[in-house]
Design brief:
Blueprint (H helix, E strand, L loop, with lengths): L5 E6 L3 H14 L4 E4 L13 E4 L9 H13 L4 E6 L2 H14 L10 H4 L5 H11 L6 E4 L17 E5 L5 H4 L10 E3 L2 H11 L8 E5 L8 E8 L5 E12 L9 E7 L2 H13 L4 E10 L4 E8 L8 H4 L4 H9 L8 E2 L5 E3 L3 H7 L3 H12 L3 E2 L10 H21 L11
Parallel strand pairs: 1-2, 1-4, 2-3, 10-14, 15-16
Antiparallel strand pairs: 5-8, 6-7, 6-8, 9-10, 9-12, 10-11, 11-15, 12-13
């Protein structure tokens, strides 16, 4: 392993965390520190990081002191520490408690005040309104309004229903029958069945009820960006998801993305991020509305996305951009990705079956032939027998998941 004057600390253990570990290894050949409450399959049996496992690390009462003691211990080595959160709740806790870690972490995070303007979807839409970004017609309802919310609906079925933040601790840790990350409904009865089940749980958050923007998974778009400490955007990469996941716990997560370029949306999002004074990594989800030619904003996440390794497929390393900026003080012009490549979290057989648009199918086949395909968790420099078996099972479990849960959003019939 090489030696550098910085230490990356990664918070989390999912695909996003492993992707970041891999980016660090590819560029620097050093072992980051991975801190999490439990190891998930993507990071199991890997030799690319040193692990610290702390029970309850993802909870507010344990995180600040636990992270502080780790930072104090490792800062003694005189290495510059860079912290990379891989979930919304780690990112939010870093924003809330940053003053506690001041001087120990090289990189900065958005202020709690800025986070508070978009950490739920209803707040984000107010921000969109203010900055001239488009978003779907939406109803926001409080816990006590769930059963009557549709009485105020000024748009037609089908509808999309989401918790105000599906990645927040409160929703991730609540339980009710039929729970999903996002719901699609054709009728009021379907909606009410879900809501009555949800009302039996301890989930007290708001619900976001939206018009369904026509189009399947390939109408989605995602932009991952990095902004420096002055709020200037330094790197942007646009992706076109060609397939999303359909299992209830991961519904709406991207399963495969082709990197794209679109100067118009790059400029629009860059202006927005710089106007609000955004700092660090951001991940913005949107959908292209073919009726109007507009990009409809869904949400902004204050960290790299779970599928952000698609940026690496496009030839860019977002962690290297961060390190160059905060550790080595480089101040380069903004880099906009313009390469086309495929990132996939599912086997080729799944893409063959469920990506049905002929032009996209052809393009995917071409990218496989050109060897322009990357999978986050398959890294040839980190394969041992246990990891190969575990990751193979995980990777190919998507075949059964799609067979069981897939539904065609183009026809917009809900999963029953």
């Amino acid at each position: 392993m090489s030696s550098y004057d910085f230490l990356p600390i990664i918070l989390g253990s999912d695909e996003n965390a492993y992707g970041n570990v891999r980016l660090i290894h590819e560029k620097y050949e050093i072992k980051p520190l991975l801190v999490c409450s439990r190891l998930l399959i993507p990071t199991m049996n890997s030799k690319l990081f040193d692990l610290i496992q702390i029970d309850g690390f993802d909870s507010e009462d344990i995180f600040p002191d636990a992270l502080l003691s780790i930072l104090e211990k490792y800062s003694a080595s005189n290495k510059k520490i860079v912290v990379i959160p891989c979930s919304d709740y780690y990112a939010a806790m870093l924003s809330r408690h940053y003053s506690k870690f001041k001087g120990l972490i090289m990189n900065h995070f958005i202020s709690e005040a800025l986070l508070d303007t978009f950490d739920t979807k209803d707040k984000f839409y107010k921000l969109c309104e203010k900055h001239g970004l488009d978003y779907p017609k939406t109803i926001v309802c409080e816990q006590h309004e769930r059963e009557i919310a549709l009485e105020h609906m000024e748009f037609q079925f089908p509808i999309v229903v989401k918790p105000e933040n599906s990645n927040a601790y409160a929703y991730l840790h609540c339980h009710f029958e039929g729970k999903k990350k996002v719901f699609f409904f054709d009728t009021k009865d379907e909606y009410l069945t879900m809501v009555r089940s949800m009302n039996l749980s301890d989930y007290a958050g708001k619900l976001i009820i939206q018009e369904f923007i026509p189009g399947g998974d390939s109408s989605m778009r995602v932009i991952n960006s990095y902004s420096d400490d002055n709020g200037i955007v330094k790197l942007m990469c646009l992706g076109q998801p060609v397939l999303e996941e359909y299992a209830p716990k991961t519904l709406g997560n991207y399963a495969a993305i082709i990197s794209r370029s679109d100067k118009g949306i790059y400029q629009k999002v860059k202006t927005f991020l710089e106007e609000i004074g955004y700092v660090g990594f951001s991940n913005i989800d949107m959908k292209y509305d073919h009726r109007t030619g507009k990009y409809m904003m869904f949400e902004i996440n204050p960290r790299l996305g779970r599928s952000s390794f698609f940026v690496r497929a496009a030839g860019l390393n977002m962690i290297a951009t961060l390190i160059d900026n905060v550790v080595y003080g480089k101040d380069e012009d903004c880099v906009y990705s313009d390469k086309t490549a495929l990132w996939t979290n599912v086997p080729k057989v799944v893409l063959r079956k469920y990506v049905t648009e002929p032009a996209l199918s052809d393009e995917i086949n071409k990218l496989y032939k050109q060897r322009k395909v990357l999978k986050s968790i398959w890294y040839r420099k980190d394969l041992n027998l246990k990891r190969i078996i575990r990751v193979s099972r995980y990777f190919f479990s998507h075949v059964g998941n799609f067979r069981r849960y897939y539904f065609n959003k183009d026809n917009m019939s809900s999963p029953k």
